[in-house]
Design brief:
Blueprint (H helix, E strand, L loop, with lengths): L1 H10 L4 H9 L3 H19 L2 E4 L1 E6 L25 H14 L3 E6 L7 H14 L4 E5 L5 H10 L3 E3 L7 H7 L6 H14 L2 E8 L6 H14 L3 E6 L16 H14 L9 H6 L3 H7 L4 E2 L29 H8 L5 E3 L10 H4 L4
Parallel strand pairs: 1-8, 1-9, 2-3, 3-4, 4-5, 5-6, 6-7
Length: 355
Amino acid sequence: MKDIIDHLASTRNLTLEQLVGLLASEDSEGIRYLFHLAHQTAQNSYGNKIFFRGLIEISNHCKNDCRYCGIRRSRTGIHRYRLSKEQILQCCQQGYALGFRTFVLQGGEDLWFDDDRMCDIVAAIHQQHPDCAITLSLGERSRQSYQRLHDAGAERYLLRHETANRAHYQKLHPADMSFDNRMRCLQDLKEIGYQVGCGFMVGSPYQTIETLFEDLQFIRAFQPQMVGIGPFIPATGTPFADRPAGTVEATLRLLAIIRLLHPHVLLPATTALGTLHPQGREMGILAGANVIMPNLSPAALRADYSIYDNKLSTGSEAAETVNDTRQRLAPLGATLLPDRGDFKPQHPANDEPET
């Protein structure tokens, strides 16, 4: 087991057989070593800093009907909302006072937030908080749209690829969505100059060890600045409502593997981890994660952004308790800082992975 982990860390690559071994292993000492090495690698890249981003969920309207998502177009019985420009700016102002220096605007693919509206919002945030980074997570858009938003001041974009396997992608999404377009979006974002984030759900329906291996190889080749993974959690009112959730353990192992594959990546310990386990995000940090994203959305609307069941939206998830979050991270030797937390590129001369 240790030999496999050391090989992964030194070559930044692994075989399908090695991945099977890492995910199936019952060698508790070996898994502890995996997590320790991943955590150490994160600290070697970024020190003991944990970067925190203020998440603002701007809309739960969506034109898509993804089979796993709780805000899919055809789902009924949920309260739909959109934040106004004024509400979004107020969230940023509150977050700035709490020490946030990155704002993440996330939402369904809501056609109401067209380019003119979004560019106006992004430009206003950029004008009011020029020392902050603006991250968008608004799904698939045209290259022209991505360019306009970048020109307005957005520097980062999160778009989970969901799966690097074409057949698997189609099992997760409706017929009017395409694997090729998702990949086109990611490539456009990278070419425009965004810091780009991709990612996938751990334990999603129809996921296999082979599709997971393809995901890891895609991440290794694409070299995103951010990777967001979390356990699949089923959502009421979706075709996958009765499917089993992904596990915390598999997610932690994959976080560690991704950290060793891509040592400088910005890697969140996600809300989904915190939903499945009270110490989920702390466990994620000890497995190599170095980003958390507390919620800055208006408290009355947080539960309406129900992309999966029982989503954590109060208590330690609320951005107002950022001091409590600092205290929870302190025993880990981690420091939560008011920092943009930009991606730190590797040094090609001495840091290239083996091909």
